[in-house]
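To whoever is on call:

I kicked off a structure prediction for a single chain this morning and the downstream step that reads the tokens threw a length-mismatch warning. I double-checked the sequence; it's 134 residues and nothing unusual in it as far as I can see. Pasting both halves so you can look.
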Amino acid sequence: MIVADTSVLVPFFIPGDRTEQVQKVMRKDSDWIAPRLWRSEFRNVLATQMRVSGLALKMAVQAMTEAEDLLREREFEPSSETVLYLANLSGTTAYDCEFIALAQLFDIPLLTHDQKLISAFPETALAVASWLAS
């Protein structure tokens, strides 16, 4: 089981440079979880890609639906106290700390492409390439 952050979820559903890599993650471990916050972050990325990259609305809606199907009953709400503690400790966003808190709660890795998060929480947040190599 892994916590997949938005930087892992997006290329799984929207083809791009990292799609092949995250498909390998799914083949290695298909049990992905995320904090409920993932939905808002994912929607924001899709909306940005529609505006900036010309992603079609139909494709955005399809990606959201498929992501919701993948994470159905695999969404959790980390405690606010833990999230705020981690944000205060690290100087990272509360949004990012929701993913960290969930990974720590389940004692599993958070896979991410966010180098700042990896640096702030090296014991919890792992680069996708590093995790695949292990």
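Update from on-call: the warning came from a stale cache, not from the record. Cleared it. Sanity check on the structure: Residues 1 and 29 are 6 Å apart (CA to CA).
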